């Protein structure tokens, strides 16, 4: 609680976490192979960039903590592993109306908390502050051996869920930008993007830069671990720049150039030929 000079100190501190528009929670154990798909997914979303109004939480195996993080949130997305015997990588989307049949809380131990118990506990503990809009994605595992990496089928299922979360839950929170924009190429070999373009199309810190068909392509990557070039923040306003000298060596079109976003290829394209 922040007090102004005109407000008395009542000694009461508000410990309630702030609400948000979208809360994404990844549940599971990172040490047990495919069971860690939820936390791994959240880490990828962190790298891709978290828009204002959204929060990403590594719920791990702490179901009660997950329940309390839901307070005041408008929409909740929970991602966890499943072991039903179906084909590994299968994605299940649990309809919200099924949450009315969640299991009772009596006799539960903290170590036995799953996503369904977390929702039931949140409804009991939070009352009217518990979100009504909750979506759960479950990804069928191939193995949960200690120390193993995610299997390829589960990685594919995780990518499917990430695409859905971006499209249905996060994209509306990202700043809009015009179909045609401008970028600036500098004499010292950088490309500069203004804050609106960077926030709407390049939320992470990594990009790939290539030349194809006489166009310069700038392609967003999911994060620095994907390789590519580093997109640095230039100023407090949020403008970004990347060093592209080696990609365009000898043909950098110095100055401001028109560009357009190619939705089909997921890239910003800048024509290199002089405008007529």
Automatic annotation (TrEMBL):
Q: Quick check: keyword Hydrolase in the entry?
A: yes
Q: State the UniProt keywords alphabetically.
A: Aspartyl protease, Hydrolase, Protease
Q: Name one GO molecular function term.
A: aspartic-type endopeptidase activity
Q: Does the keyword Cell membrane apply?
A: no
Q: Which Pfam families does the protein's record reference?
A: HycI
Gene Ontology BP terms: protein processing
Check the record and name the InterPro entries matching this protein.
Pept_HybD-like_dom_sf, Peptidase_A31
Q: Which family does it belong to?
A: Belongs to the peptidase A31 family.
Which PANTHER family does the entry link to? Answer: HYDROGENASE 1 MATURATION PROTEASE, HYDROGENASE 2 MATURATION PROTEASE
Name of protein: Hydrogenase maturation protease
Its taxonomic placement starts with: Bacteria, Bacillati, Actinomycetota, Actinomycetes, Mycobacteriales
